[in-house]
User: What shape does this take?
Amino acid sequence: MEQRVNLRFNLNRTDDCQAWEYLRSQTDQRESSLNRTLIEILLEHFAAQEKADSDDALIERIVTAVRKELR
Assistant: This one.
């Protein structure tokens, strides 16, 4: 099954232009299609976010344990 999404970049906007240039450079660097590159970038972003959330949770548990022991 396929899902389609149209993505448009307004190159008159700075952030759109930066995103487009990044996507194009990553596509060239990875030697893949725009579609595959975008999928990989999204998955990398979500994995990094999950790791950061996990790290934050670990830090919070450590801080809580240290506070409890200091009381």
In short: Helices lie at 14-30, 34-70. The two ends are 57 Å apart (CA to CA). The chain is about 75% helix and 0% strand.
